[in-house]
Design brief:
The chain is mainly alpha-helical. It contains one helix and no strands. The N and C termini lie far apart (about 60 Å).
Length: about 60
């Protein structure tokens, strides 16, 4: 393999890696917004039942 082809492959790999990282960051941001919305919905559904410092301690797992 010549140096030019190897350089292009390395460049392509860097671009693919950057694109993958960008997609992962967008997915994380989207999940953060969704989680924030769920927390707000839980607070609105049961105000004063979810302690401010103990979010996540009260979970009803019964069907």
């Amino acid at each position: 393999m010549d140096i030019g082809a190897m350089s292009m492959e390395i460049s392509l790999a860097r671009v693919q890696q950057s694109a993958g990282i960008s997609v992962a960051k967008k997915a994380m941001a989207s999940q953060e917004v969704a989680a924030d919305g769920l927390l707000k919905m839980a607070e609105a559904a049961a105000p004063k039942q979810v302690p401010v410092d103990g979010i996540g301690q009260i979970v009803d797992v019964r069907a």
